Amino acid sequence: MNREGQQQPKAKQLKGEEVAKHNNREDCWVIVHGRAYDVTAFLPEHPGGPNIILKYAGKDATETYEPIHPPDTLDKYLDKSKHLGEVNMSTVKQDQKEEDPDEQERQERIRRMPILEQCYNLMDFEAVARRVMKKTAWAYYSSGADDEITMRENHTAFHKIWFRPRILVDVEKIDLSTTMLGTKVDIPFYVTATALGKLGNPEGEVILTRGAKKHNVVQMIPTLASCSFDEIVDAKEGDQAQWLQLYVNRDREITKRIVQHAEKRGVKGLFITVDAPQLGRREKDMRSKFSDVGSNVQNTGGHDVDRSQGAARAISSFIDPALSWKDIPWFQSITKMPILLKGVQRVEDVIRAVEMGVQGVVLSNHGGRQLDFARSGIEVLAEVMPVLRERGWESRIEIFVDGGIRRATDIIKALCLGANGVGIGRPFLYAMSAYGLPGVDRAMQLLKDEMEMNMRLIGCSSIDQLNPSLVDTRGLSLHSTTVPADTLGLNVYDALAGPQSKSKL
Amino acid sequence: MNREGQQQPKAKQLKGEEVAKHNNREDCWVIVHGRAYDVTAFLPEHPGGPNIILKYAGKDATETYEPIHPPDTLDKYLDKSKHLGEVNMSTVKQDQKEEDPDEQERQERIRRMPILEQCYNLMDFEAVARRVMKKTAWAYYSSGADDEITMRENHTAFHKIWFRPRILVDVEKIDLSTTMLGTKVDIPFYVTATALGKLGNPEGEVILTRGAKKHNVVQMIPTLASCSFDEIVDAKEGDQAQWLQLYVNRDREITKRIVQHAEKRGVKGLFITVDAPQLGRREKDMRSKFSDVGSNVQNTGGHDVDRSQGAARAISSFIDPALSWKDIPWFQSITKMPILLKGVQRVEDVIRAVEMGVQGVVLSNHGGRQLDFARSGIEVLAEVMPVLRERGWESRIEIFVDGGIRRATDIIKALCLGANGVGIGRPFLYAMSAYGLPGVDRAMQLLKDEMEMNMRLIGCSSIDQLNPSLVDTRGLSLHSTTVPADTLGLNVYDALAGPQSKSKL
Amino acid sequence: MNREGQQQPKAKQLKGEEVAKHNNREDCWVIVHGRAYDVTAFLPEHPGGPNIILKYAGKDATETYEPIHPPDTLDKYLDKSKHLGEVNMSTVKQDQKEEDPDEQERQERIRRMPILEQCYNLMDFEAVARRVMKKTAWAYYSSGADDEITMRENHTAFHKIWFRPRILVDVEKIDLSTTMLGTKVDIPFYVTATALGKLGNPEGEVILTRGAKKHNVVQMIPTLASCSFDEIVDAKEGDQAQWLQLYVNRDREITKRIVQHAEKRGVKGLFITVDAPQLGRREKDMRSKFSDVGSNVQNTGGHDVDRSQGAARAISSFIDPALSWKDIPWFQSITKMPILLKGVQRVEDVIRAVEMGVQGVVLSNHGGRQLDFARSGIEVLAEVMPVLRERGWESRIEIFVDGGIRRATDIIKALCLGANGVGIGRPFLYAMSAYGLPGVDRAMQLLKDEMEMNMRLIGCSSIDQLNPSLVDTRGLSLHSTTVPADTLGLNVYDALAGPQSKSKL
Amino acid sequence: MNREGQQQPKAKQLKGEEVAKHNNREDCWVIVHGRAYDVTAFLPEHPGGPNIILKYAGKDATETYEPIHPPDTLDKYLDKSKHLGEVNMSTVKQDQKEEDPDEQERQERIRRMPILEQCYNLMDFEAVARRVMKKTAWAYYSSGADDEITMRENHTAFHKIWFRPRILVDVEKIDLSTTMLGTKVDIPFYVTATALGKLGNPEGEVILTRGAKKHNVVQMIPTLASCSFDEIVDAKEGDQAQWLQLYVNRDREITKRIVQHAEKRGVKGLFITVDAPQLGRREKDMRSKFSDVGSNVQNTGGHDVDRSQGAARAISSFIDPALSWKDIPWFQSITKMPILLKGVQRVEDVIRAVEMGVQGVVLSNHGGRQLDFARSGIEVLAEVMPVLRERGWESRIEIFVDGGIRRATDIIKALCLGANGVGIGRPFLYAMSAYGLPGVDRAMQLLKDEMEMNMRLIGCSSIDQLNPSLVDTRGLSLHSTTVPADTLGLNVYDALAGPQSKSKL
């Protein structure tokens, strides 16, 4: 915010009529939190595309702006000369809100929400969130790339792994604690980075910070958070550990500033996203509304008009598609934080990562939001570990997996195969969206309870006992479909039916 | 029951108003079968959790208490000093029963029940039981762990085994008899242990005893029966054989007493449950009703409140999570009964069992009620037998399998692969719940008829002729899923349809 | 029929009232085609069980009797002394037929039947038959054993075989003709034996005889035909070839008489059924009606009451369960017809058949009506042929396959793998039941047209060009199921949807 | 058209009544575009069968004739002596058009069509086309052979191929261009040949010509286009490249004329169809209407009456079933255009094609419209390339694939495996049918946008970087089905359900 603006007397407030005149692509003002901004020059650079701003040209954009921009956004990205000062909000014409039957139904669903105690597993939070979230917010969180095959495969892949449990082991005391990048945690999962937390809850990512604290797990702070980085760091307590997920900007100075600021603020690990040189097409999200907010923030290349302008436009400046292995030494030169690559998808690149001296990798396909038909992280893990073990390299690097984890059995499977820990994203977003912090708390507790029980049932009392002999992965890497259905044959088959009740008396 | 209480004159009966005052956690009395008990101190130890008792604090709990506690429970577990004597039941205020539309519909379904002769296979009893059982009882019997993947896999696994039948063998006379732990039986299945028989039928497990007698098969008596152990033993006739399923108590003296009592009463085999150091989460059961009775008896760790109290609470004292291989010699020292491990799930542990000198194992995952993604017993059998045969150990141990058996072909498959017999649990519970003893009788007879027929059709006239060359198990160990559905593609595909009838004249 | 009876004057006709007195198990008369019979002594021997006869004790049974007994049945199986002579039918009380709403609906469906030209493939006839056949007749034809897994697998198995077609081969002229057991046929299928043709069409199996003639294929005459053997042989024209399917009677003299009579009447091949020492349980059929006729004819052991009487009862005298390899030389001694074993299901038995000098085998599981989880004939074929070829025995025996053939591609697949021909049963029954001879004719013509086209498309102009390199069978022998469905996961997944239409204007 | 006819004065016009007299098989006139033709002698030669013409005997056939005959058809195929001259159309009785409720509903659906921008992928166009196309046109485009297993498998096969993407590669600039048969194209797909474009859009194939120009891809001109060959060539602009798909006529002179005319007109490649010695049975199409137009054009053998006349009739003269490898040198002698075989389906034939010196092959099964259970082109590709590479022949021939391509990932998969490019047919037809040229334009643009993004996400910046290590094809060649469904088991299973909402307040 413009300092001078803060000192201006009320008399100098802008009037609604004045702002309303600047309502087109050549001359575009918007009001945010009671202040006017001239965004004309910024329009073509807006990561979410110009259209969504133009919709509010000359008007108050606060409600739409709020959930998807950290509070320091305007200060950071808009030159102070464009900060036009306070607006007398009583002079601003309010759009008559139409009655929206969808919204009314949603409010009804909120009134009838199940109580928190009715959620017995992570899927339950998702079921509730789906009913009570705004449609566009749901679409943004829940969508995946293209046909969403990879997104669904992520969880399904765990179903191809079966246990070979041990019996008659003393499992009275179960210790779920382990260490990730030197941090002792109570259970081997971390809260992975997901964007735009305020779409689900007005407080945003700091709720996840508090949940992570309560259960002593690490939170990975997303570049595209709704809260500002500092707000999220400020929300941590004591020696709570946080990591940073990083989209690398074309302008390496910006990146350097972000990285070094994070290190100064105590962040314990730098996770460079390497699976998103361009952000994926999420059609469910695109379809959810033309003028949808969420859909455009990341889908910089997804909007029709923009797409037809080709690649240059499709690549937003805040993610550098030219990022390559050659950049790794530079990162190593600017920070002492452990550096990890997030989004590695084949063993060859894990080998290379070890050779480059990075501290870890996350085997991940970005929650199925980028390349469809990318394999699941857990499948890649099963490909990676035998090769690392053969070379004796398994302790030269930490291996994390994310994508599709919903049950403690999923966590255990990953650890049996050799992962140091797993990242969980959407489930906590859904828990937060439906029930706030208590939801996140319960979700984490459910995982702990499930995991303690399953550790007992698999015959292991501590994390270091988990090993490959406890799982059967023979079906894991088979991507098959069945022969297309025999429609005519099925039509004429008379399915078996059980005993019929007597007809009503 | 308090002996003195029995001698008290009517004048000394307690009044309802008096009992009703003790209606909270700090002071809690309940009435069972016309007698009052002070259970305040017992509340925290109740395996089903305190809440379910508190619901009846100061009231008559008989109806709920009855089906899930053996008659000797109060004598065994509640100190005589807490037995408060008879209550004048006419002074006890009866809860006005609300009209329950669900219950009315169930009564209507009972009136329209198919007659017994309409049940042609074991699934049919389940279909009827599902309609006529109380919802909570059905939920308790039918539920499995987590996503119930293992529970369903148990039967499905048999579908991956196909026959290679022999032809032109004289199969006029079929002999289904075989020997299990030295007992001659008429057909190679036994009634395996399942808890809380009175939920399905007021008489409880003794019905199974009678059914087993009629068809000359062994019944395994469950630790958690609704009838008392002695009632079940008393119900046997002649030289009828019974086995005991044992949950090992932390207090080994209790366990010793149970085991030696069983041996004295003529029990022919001791099956130590090794797949349940903690009882599994059965969400369907938990969800069926918050205040549900059945759901809490075993799910000692499943209730929300309790779970959040962590592991100490989650482990009920009556199952010792510290049970380990080291305990086996002790068992061998206290009994001469054959000792078997129930719930073995991988070949390494079968090998170890042989080395420890136990007489047998049951390859089982507890009917899919414990660890989800545990493999089916039949799959483990296919892993175990070749290893045993290679070592020449196949006759050093008896191998049983349970889980998912519904057809005589399932039994034959298990025996072809090398099992000595199979355990069947839920199907007989369902037959009993729907039709009582005649249901159990018919269910067993159907299996015999199916098996006799299928022995003929596979070309074997006696059990000892069954061998691995008669089955094709190549698909058995493949745990695969298909690629997630191509939703958009399926949406636009116009399925084929057969010839259309003329429009109505 | 009683000769004397035939000579009795009208005055001597029995009266309805007289017959009606003999209406119980101890004294049971029935009327068939205007004549009375004392069947009291025969009751326990009736292959369909006594109950179905008792239903008509003292009454006219003609309508039920007719479709399921060849005309010479009473002469053959009931001693002449029990033939009581003509009945004055005007004195017989007619059962008041109840109005049957099911039957009325069926009549309506018949009125609206698609015309024959709307049937474009074999499944279409089945679709029509299902709508227009009597429910019990449909249940008898369409049912399979147990869970009907094998019955469905039979056709599904063909879906696992894919083509590797040749191109640029001159396929102007296609010759579909081949030779089976020395008979030249126009296309390599034969009409295999199926029981009780009159359930579908009042004329019965002779319709199939005429259809087979028209398309120059062989008909296999069933032991359990509705028409008598001689009627079916009489219906053949010119040098039309027929084979005989034989259930071997315990009384070998009866069998000998049947076989030698068949040879005398010109039958060209003897197919001894070896997969039915006991007839299978077809629950769909059993369920279709308690008092159902069709269901009892073969399911001699299937009826509840009877089943509980055990094995002795379950084995009908007309099929000898003791039939074994030792009987084969005897068959070879009583006939010069080629002898084939119908129902062979593994390579070991094919080898043995060759060694015994039989002329052929039918790889078959009896249309899925006997042993559930028997593999499909086509799968067994893929197991058998490489072994035969390795030994150089492929021309020492003719190999046929039946079960699940619905498309010409199925026939071609079987021939590519090495079969000499395939048997087709139910599809022609359905065509006959829906449309009579024109239906059978069209069904056969459709197969010819399909086959001619597909021969062109696979790049072969004659049967002898078909060979294993033209098919890919790698998936054939895999009997897998997918991991049980992830119910909760599927519930919360928001399926993709295409573009929405505008709301109605 | 008859030149003299054009010069006749109005007075000489034929009258409707006159034409109407010639209304039977022995004497059949029809009116097309205001002129009468005597087609009596042509009836038996009509590729679509005589019935469809007879329906218009003595009447105006223009509306039905128009979309499925190129404008020069009558001149080419009907002797001038049969051109009878102009008709006074005011004297022609118009058939009273019945109100067709289906058509009214379709018109309503057209009014409510989604706008073009709502189509986000190729399936979306199909979804819209299905709603707005005429039923018979939809049936013609969308149908496949027999059970349509191959048609569906074509796209499904791509789902069995998964990516192994590279990370940290500079993918700022993506170059999608490549070369096909010497022509530089902007993206490695071409518009493959599909028949009867006017069924979907009155302008027909020239729309595809314009779309191909706009995106600089090659169009393959179909023999059975609705537009004439010259119209389509005339529609190209500048150096736009076109290829010709050829059905080889029995009369090689006709074929020679077509080929040499194409070469003269600048066509750059000759694709000889080798998978259609006879046109396939497409039952969906046949069923869509008895008198349907589209269904008969290609299904010359499909109509009942015709089929029963056997093979001679079934083979239309315009496709020579005798075409064989021996004809290839002749083609090489009559043209200098590159010669390619379209419809190759196994590696042996690719080898042979290389040996014969042809320039390329298209691995294709004709869009699943010919032989059912033919494998997908992409699967054949995976069989072919390793063999070619082993011989070092991969650059001696260009390999194309078509069938089932719907996503840019499908294109990338084919190129990774070694294809030079892929053909896309139906999706552009659907885009054209729903939205005309803008639809085709957007469809192509969407593919480009998808492909550019996916190239980035797979870590490749140009086509030549695509290679087999980027894909996992282990599941590709497995054609399996699952064991038939356990109907009874599924019936009795109580599926899990999530938390229930409170009942309505």
From TrEMBL, chains A, B, C, D:
The processes (GO biological process) annotated in the record are: lactate metabolic process
Q: Subcellular location, in the record's words?
A: Mitochondrion intermembrane space
Q: Which InterPro entries match?
A: Aldolase_TIM, Cyt_B5-like_heme/steroid-bd, Cyt_B5-like_heme/steroid_sf, Cyt_B5_heme-BS, FMN-dep_DH, FMN_HAD, FMN_hydac_DH_AS, L-MDH/L-LDH_FMN-bd
Catalysed reaction per UniProt?
(S)-lactate + 2 Fe(III)-[cytochrome c] = 2 Fe(II)-[cytochrome c] + pyruvate + 2 H(+)
Task: Tell me one GO molecular function of this protein.
Answer: L-lactate dehydrogenase (cytochrome) activity
- What Pfam families is this protein classified in? Cyt-b5 (PF00173), FMN_dh (PF01070)
Cofactor dependence is on:
FMN; heme b
Q: Which family does it belong to?
A: In the N-terminal section; belongs to the cytochrome b5 family.
Task: Give the protein name, as stated in the record.
Answer: L-lactate dehydrogenase (cytochrome)
**Organism this protein belongs to:** Lasallia pustulata
